[in-house]
Every structure is written in C-alpha cells, then in structure tokens.
Amino acid sequence: MSEHAGQHRDEVVKETPYRGRFAPSPTGDLHFGSLVAALGSWLRARAMGGAWLVRIEDLDPPREVVGAAERQLATLAAFGLLSDEPLVRQSERHAHYEAALQRLIDDGLAFPCACSRKQLEASGGLHLAPCAAPAAGTPHAWRARVPDIDIAFDDPVVGHYTQSLRREVGDFVLKRNDGLYAYQLAVVVDDAAQGITEIVRGADLLDSTPRQIWLQAALGLPTPRYLHLPLVLDEHGRKLGKSLTSLPVDAQDPLPALRAALRFLGQHDHPDCSSVTALLQRATTHFDVTAIPASIPSRIGEGSD
Ligand SMILES: [Zn+2]
Fold first, then answer.
1. Residue 270, number of CB atoms within 10 A of its CB
2. How far is the CA of 130 from the centre of ligand 1 (A)?
3. CA 279 to ligand 1 centroid distance, Å
4. Which of 58, 59, 47, 54 is nearest to 18 (CA)?
5. Do domains 16-92+230-305 and 94-224 have the same CATH topology?
6. CATH of domain 94-224
7. What are the two backbone dihedrals, phi and then psi, of residue 266, each rounded to the nearest 5 degrees?
8. What topology is assigned to 16-92+230-305 in CATH?
C-alpha cells in the first residue's frame, strides 16, 4: 500500500461519525414547529450517515405537562422518527449539571446573585454590572461571569452569526434561585455527554448559541457545529409552539404533516410515496441542505400585524 493511501485511511478513521439530536421539552403535544425541527435534524443525521438521538428536556417541572413526553415520543414514532439510542432525560442528570456549575465556580466563571428582575430593569433585563454578594441564607441564582468578547460561528443555513456576549446577553443564569438548572448549562453538558457533532434546531435558539459556545470552552468541552432551521410562525407572527392556535400534529395520519414539513424545509414532498418509511427514505436520498430557506421567519397563513 502506498504511503498516500495509508494516510487517507487514517484520516477516514479519525473522522468523527455524525451524531445529531432532537431535544423537546415536555410542555405539551408535538406541534408542527416541533415536527419541522425533529424531521430536519433526523434528515440531516441520516443524510450524513449518522445517528439521531432524542433527549427529553424536562428541567422545569412547573412548566411540564404530565404524560406529554410519552405522547411526544409516540407521535415521533408514528412519523417514523425513532431515537437510535436510549432516551436521555434531563431530570435524571442533575449531578452532572451541579458538577459543571461547581467547575465554573472554582474557575471564577460563576457567581452568586440575588438581583431582582426589577433591579435589572434599568439595563434592559441584562445583568451587566458586578453586584454585592448575597447575604448568607438569601435565596440566590448562579450567573456566568461573561467576558467582553464576540462569539461567532458559521451556520449552513443562517450564514455567519456574531454576538457580543457581554453587551447582548450579559451575565446569564446557570442555576435559578428556585434551584432549577438553566437550559443553557444543561444543554451544553448533555450535548457533550452524548457526543453530539452537529445541533440542528429552530432559529428561536440562534441567540442562545454563542452563550453555549462560550460555556463549552469554559468547561473544556468540544463545540459542535450548529444549523438553525427556519421558524414556523402563526398568523400573528408568534412562534407556533407558544401560541394558542398551535395545534398538535395528527399521529393517526402522518403523511400530510410530514409532506408539509418537507416543503417547509425547502425539500421535495414526494407525493408518490404512500408510506412513512418510503417517504423518509426518499427524502433522505434527496435531502438538500442548501434548499432550506434562510431563517428569516416565514409565516404560515395570511395574517399581518
Ligand atoms: Zn446580581
């Protein structure tokens, strides 16, 4: 074997296999916007010959709906979207979040804060200035001590994205004063633990990504690639999942919603495929990431406001 061929083989071996994920919060039934995110991440993973994992982001019990996680998983299954590995539930991973928080505290990158929402009003809700240490026994949050840096990344759909972490985000919460871990901390810990190589999700999380990239560096974790899908908005321009008009997708009749989700992602909807399996297979073969519309939120429906 020539030296060149040997080097090539080594490069192939070293290349990390693609691992993607879908991480719903169990706050209700799976709606069309979630289906788009699930399908987009699944198609990208399959088109890259990789694995697709599902993680239940049940970090916030007061917002969760009993039985919603199971119903979401059953709906995903009806759409042919099955996790390749056992489910991960954030509610079972608090020790990992605590360890990450402790590391940030030890490194001087997290601090206790008892500032009220009202106190932060003057700075637009952002925590920008140092504050007094809370008195012993006072309930307090833990915040990240955010440096004055720009964080940038390149997204295959959105393009180049830059955020000034200090000016646009400020010292963000890692653990709330009610003891709940913040999404930003948990998601970074879990994406690393699951070896996720690319995160495909809705553009509503675009402005969270720089925070997460900074946290990854602070915790010595690898940074995955990021791809943000266009958001599905209702006729009032609100994110579908958060609006009153968002309807759950029909798990009894998955093909129409699956085709609508494909069209929303700029893909062909293959009307000749008569089963979920056939449609997903064909959509994987023809998946074109460059056809996904850029994340300028597009609307469904005709409303204007
Ligand atoms: Zn404070």
1. 18
2. 7
3. 52
4. 47
5. yes
6. 3.40.50.620
7. 75, 15
8. Rossmann fold (3.40.50)
**Where are the chain's structural domains?**
16-92+230-305, 94-224
Residue 42: count other Cβ atoms within 10 Å of its Cβ: 26
Q: What global pTM score does this model have? A: 0.89
Task: Compute, in angstroms, the gap from residue 172 CA to the centroid of ligand 1.
Answer: 10
Q: Which of 218, 258, 269, 286 is nearest to 47 (CA)?
A: 286
The tokens of 235 are what? Answer: 């006729």
Helix runs in 147-193, H state only: 165-168, 183-193
Per-residue pLDDT reduced to its tens digit, 168-181: 999 999 999 999 99
**C-alpha–C-alpha distance, residues 77 and 80, integer Å:** 5
Distance from residue 152's CA to the centre of ligand 1 (Å): 26
CB–CB of 99/131 below 8 Å? no
Span 57-83, pLDDT tens digits: 999 999 999 999 999 999 999 999 999
Interacting residues of 241 by C-beta distance below 8 A, sequence separation 6+: 28, 31, 33, 34
**Ligand 1 centroid distance, CA of 55 (Å):** 32
